[in-house]
Amino acid sequence: MSLTVNLYYTGEHGSAREFVREMEGSGIAAAIRAESGNEKYDYFQSLNEPETILLIDQWRDQKAWTIIMLRP
Known about the structure:
Blueprint: E1 3-10, H1 15-26, H2 28-34, E2 38-45, E3 52-59, H3 62-69
Antiparallel strand pairs: 1-3, 2-3
């Protein structure tokens, strides 16, 4: 069974969108997507709250997610 984590990033003056640009531009998001067990790592912007970004981070199972979270 998949484990899905929904995270909301809220900022001011475009800081949440800048966070996404940094994650994508630095290659960190691509590295997370390439991890064994990662099924989805996508960002979405709210139409009603333009300063809020939703991250959907989905993993194959709890074990796959826990392994990544325990890394230093």
